[in-house]
Amino acid sequence: MKRGMIAAAAVTLLVASFGMASAQGGRGQGRGFGGRGGFGGLQLLQIKKVQEELKMTQPQIDKLEAKQQEVRQAMQDLFQGGGLQNATPEERQKLMAKGQEIQTKAVNDILDTKQQKRFHQLELQRAGANAIAQPDVAKELNLTDDQKAKIREIQTAQQEKMREIFQGAGQGGDRQAMMQQMQALQKAAGEKITALLTDTQKTQWKAMQGEPFEFPAPQPRQPRQP
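^ that's the sequence the OP posted. Answer follows.
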């Protein structure tokens, strides 16, 4: 039961936030789920190349660990009791929005205004087209109700398939194969979502992501020492 709750929560975080993003790393690189698409927030700031892109100072970098602990506790308090698994779509959306607020505040406590702007662009690049469903992004792109509904359908189908993948991994499945399947699902869903945009929206979406940034390849986790 506990394993199923964890899997369901992870999937919901992956799809709803920002999704998540690709499964390489997220709103981060190889440090689990969370943030805008699972791969943003403080996890994204842990990546050295991102720190360099943002020109973070050493005092800013030194704040990361303490902030990460604060966020972890806040997220545990938010999702305790397995409420996310049994929540309605509306309740889940509110929980995820609150979780994103926690992550965003933590990031903003560290970065200055100029850094925050570039960081948001990096988050959108990391999250990919799944981020288009985020309320702030959808508003800026002026998505129609029909577009929003179709995106929800795509992400719901993606979520169901990801839940199946997580369940298989929980039963001793191949983790590497799981990650590859998740990446393929993310890519397919992203292509479907992007295809729903008008030419004007596609141009705006590209502009919102800023200058392209090449994220480092994910590093495999080292096995624990006995």
